[in-house]
Amino acid sequence: SAQPMGVDIVKVIRAADLGGANIEQTTRVGPAGAAATREQVRTAGIESIIEEIEAAAKKSWRAEQATATYDLDLEDLDRPVTERVNVLGAEEISVRPGDFSVRTGPGFAMSSLPTKWALGLGDAETVKRAWPIELRGAVHTATLEVHPPRGYTLAAAPSDVDIALTGGRFTWRFAPLPEGGLRAEARLEVPTTVAVDRVDEFVKAMEDAKKRAEVTLRFLNTATRVGEDGKVSASLREWSTLAHAPDALLADRVGWAQAL
């Protein structure tokens, strides 16, 4: 039978000309996970949860501003909960002259994976494992879009990841977007049960998935690209061309001044 929807995330990162990027993130939590969110809202109140999310987003992205909104129905249990967060001026993802780098991974999916404790692997070697180990099976998905500054393109295309998870599967695939951007799509299928003698295998596959999914996406302008190939005078000419264009980016003007 088809696994129920777990979490679906869409994150869009747009580079500013120079300085911190803007980020929009929409998170939809399926009925099973939404129960915990509804309980949290009943207990703490929506305002305090929104305040907490905004403060956390500002801190983790080192952002000027963060705003969050919630769409949830406390009575309709079959309806997903939707959370939207907009972040402006995220210094954590800054455009530097000639270089826009984004360190990323489908962290949402990784956090949905069961912990070692949930799998009966405590710190003690003597922990008795029940058989089979029950998990909350679900399908988690995410889409990441990165839009670099005008004229900046990806230095090296990342490799797709496809890992079997002992009854589940994790995939992380990349595709180019128009104007030099990149889309990454992740899908995590968590199995409903793992046989006790395959738990170690499952944990190893999870750790492997976490490691291999982390990636740094570097977007470079032509001047930086040529400079990194060791062609210094060609790079200076390229900086000059970029900086003196009628619609020159501030980042490229600053880069030209620094290169002189």
Gross geometry: globular
Low-confidence stretches: none
What would you report as the Rg, rounded to the nearest angstrom? Answer: 22 Å
Order of helices and strands: EEHHEEEHEEEEEEEHEHHH
Instruction: Quote the beta fraction.
Output: 35-45%
Terminal residue distance: 64 Å
Task: Tell me about the largest β-sheet.
Answer: 11 strands, mixed
Contiguous helical run count: 7
Task: Report the structural category.
Answer: alpha+beta
Write down how many β-strands occur, each being a DSSP E stretch of 2 or more residues. 13
Name the average pLDDT.
86
Helix content: 25-40%
Task: Give a written overview of the molecule.
The chain has 260 residues and is of the alpha+beta class. Helices cover 31% and strands 36% of the residues. The chain has helices at residues 31-44, 46-61, 107-112, 199-213, 222-228, 232-243, 250-259, and strands at 5-14, 19-29, 65-71, 81-96, 99-104, 133-134, 138-147, 153-154, 161-164, 169-176, 182-190, 193-194, 215-220. Strands 1, 2, 3, 4, 5, 7, 8, 9, 10, 11 and 13 form an eleven-stranded mixed beta sheet that branches. The model has no long low-confidence stretch (mean pLDDT 86).
